[in-house]
Specification:
With 364 residues, this protein is mainly α. 71% of the residues lie in helices and 6% in strands. It has two domains: 84 residues, no CATH class; 262 residues, ABC transporter involved in vitamin B12 uptake, BtuC, CATH 1.10.3470. It has 13 helices and two strands, in the order βαααααααααααααβ. It has a two-stranded antiparallel ribbon.
Length: 364
């Protein structure tokens, strides 16, 4: 008697053409939207095509929605780019939220304390310096402990977020406007001192341009600079880095200071460019979403523009279908979750291949 079995073998792909890679991505996305459509019909009885149309309308239906899409992309992209140097060094910086919060705190402090004492242009420059320094210092603390004592950077940076939240909460009470409200109102609303200037009549354009400059800057730094090469070597092998004479402790602290500085700029964009206020929730978890953006794009700054667009589009679209069709917010989150699950799973098929073989065994 012969027992036959089917065996599946998973092996790593050595190389895959860009055509095949994009073919896999398109197939996965098609399956994801098909499944979401089936879930929509089964759970709500709605036409999935109308639901998808509403998601598109929620992001592109009006000029304001389109600019809000670009603005949200700019903020998320800037904090995601800030994480790239640290991640390439295999320093798992989960403190993006806290570092951006400290940057926002620095910018808000400048607007409140010296907003009426210097010209607005000078104030914005001072805010930029304060935001960069605050974010840099906040990132340098876990970097120094990692370099000197080998502490766990994941837990350290994560806990620094909570410290930053409490610091911001303290100063929100100190600067609360009006007194007793427990919050800061719109800062310098009458004079708009420290508010980013409008370009071409659009108040979000400067944020978008800054995010694009950061994208180009990070790409050049990672690909062509000596510092980018050093942090990549440290990430690949600490032993190799020591062998070629790279000072690992110096690279860790320097790279994290850069990461913190870019997170600080994100805080500046939020306070000076969009919200003009300070709250403990102003960053809204973008530091954690940025981790997904960076990983999906394989740390390529230009590909991160596409992954940022996808996540912001899904968030705006889910909110729209919740409003238009009167659905629970959880349904929009379900659609978003299914799509993201397929997208993340796509990474597996881009890096591995599955083969099948049959085997037989004689049995008495």
């Amino acid at each position: 008697m012969r027992n036959r079995g089917v065996h599946f073998h998973i092996s790593r792909r050595n190389d895959i053409s860009w055509r095949k890679a994009w073919g896999i991505r398109c197939a996965v996305m098609a399956l994801a939207f098909l499944l979401c459509g089936l879930i929509t019909m089964a759970a709500t009885g709605l036409n999935p095509i109308k639901v998808y149309a509403a998601m598109i309308d929620g992001n592109f239906g009006t000029s304001r929605r389109f600019w809000m899409l670009l603005q949200n992309m700019a903020v998320l992209l800037s904090i995601s780019l800030a994480l790239v140097p640290a991640f390439r060094m295999r320093f798992w910086n989960l403190g993006g939220d806290g570092q951006a919060l400290m940057g926002a705190l620095g910018a808000a402090a400048c607007m409140i304390l010296i907003g009426d004492k210097v010209p607005s242009f000078v104030l914005i420059l001072i805010m930029a310096v304060a935001s960069i320094v605050c974010g840099m210092v906040w990132a340098a603390i876990p970097a120094w402990f990692k370099a000197k004592f080998g502490t766990n950077e994941t837990l350290f940076t994560l806990m620094m977020n909570y410290v930053a939240i409490q610091l911001v909460a303290f100063f929100v009470i100190v600067w609360e406007m009006p007194k007793g409200s427990g919050k800061i109102g719109i800062i310098n609303q009458s004079t708009q001192a420290g508010w980013f200037p409008q370009i071409g009549g659009n108040k979000y354009l400067l944020n978008i341009l800054i995010a694009l400059l950061i994208t180009v800057g990070v790409y050049i730094y990672m690909r062509y600079s000596k510092q980018g090469y050093e942090l990549a070597v440290v990430g690949e092998s600490g032993s190799t880095a020591r062998y070629v004479g790279i000072k690992i402790q110096h690279v860790i602290i320097r790279t994290m200071m850069l990461s913190g500085a870019l997170c600080g700029i994100t805080g500046l964009l939020l306070v000076g460019g969009t919200d003009h206020t300070l709250t403990t929730t102003i960053v809204s978890g973008r530091g954690f979403t940025g981790v997904m953006v960076a990983w999906l794009a394989k740390f390529n700054p230009f590909v991160m523009i596409l992954t940022t667009f996808l996540l912001v589009f899904l968030k705006g679209g889910s909110s729209e279908i919740t409003t238009i069709f009167g659905l629970n917010q959880s349904f929009g989150d379900i659609i978003t979750g299914v799509l993201l699950f397929f997208i993340l799973g796509c990474d597996f098929f881009l890096n591995y291949t599955i083969s099948m073989s049959k085997s037989g065994k004689e049995a008495a």
